[in-house]
Amino acid sequence: xxxxxxxxxxxxVRGIGAKSYSLKQELERxxxxxxxxxxxxxxxxxxxxxxxxxxxxxxxxxxxxxxxxQEELAPGxxxxxxxxxxxxxxxxxxxxxxxxxxxxRYDWSAGDLVLVTPGCVHQHFNALEDRPARxxxxxxxxxxxxLGLIQQGFVEKAPKQAKPGWEDFKPLHGSFLEQLEKNK
Length: 184
Fold this sequence. Notes:
The chain is 12% helix and 32% strand. The chain is mainly β. Strand 6 and strand 7 (104-109) form a beta hairpin. It has helices at residues 24-32, 141-146, 176-182, and strands at 45-46, 50-56, 67-73, 81-83, 88-94, 96-101, 104-109, 113-116, 122-126, 133-139, 153-156. It has a 6-stranded antiparallel β-sheet with strand order 1-2-3-10-5-8, with no helix packed on it. Strands 7-6-9 form a 3-stranded antiparallel β-sheet, with no helix packed on it.
């Protein structure tokens, strides 16, 4: 599999230290952290066919075992083709599309939950040519990396060219339908 290079360093697992066995300071710190993450304040990255918003990972110092992100596929867009040892859940927030898992197609639409099984090579596709698809991704990737299960990689990177007619597409806060209503 091909190696993915990111624009910024990513934190997969962070160190936790204490002078006492009880980890009292860490527990106090965790209990003082925010319980609501405001998605509107988090930036989108990547593009032009697939965009990511990192909602939570160990680098945010809120949890050590979960990674959560939003992915928005531009109209007719597709993600990278990749694999990892951890399972992933994709909750479809809006749109219609399909995944290819180890060569088999799985159709999905808003309200569906897609399970990516461990080790499966997969890719996400937006089946709609006129609007984006948005999914929430939750995975236990940090825990798997901590356990030394780091066999992951890319078979094919996400396209670097936008779909014709969508060269200026950027994800917006709120749903696409809400954005259409505001622009009427």
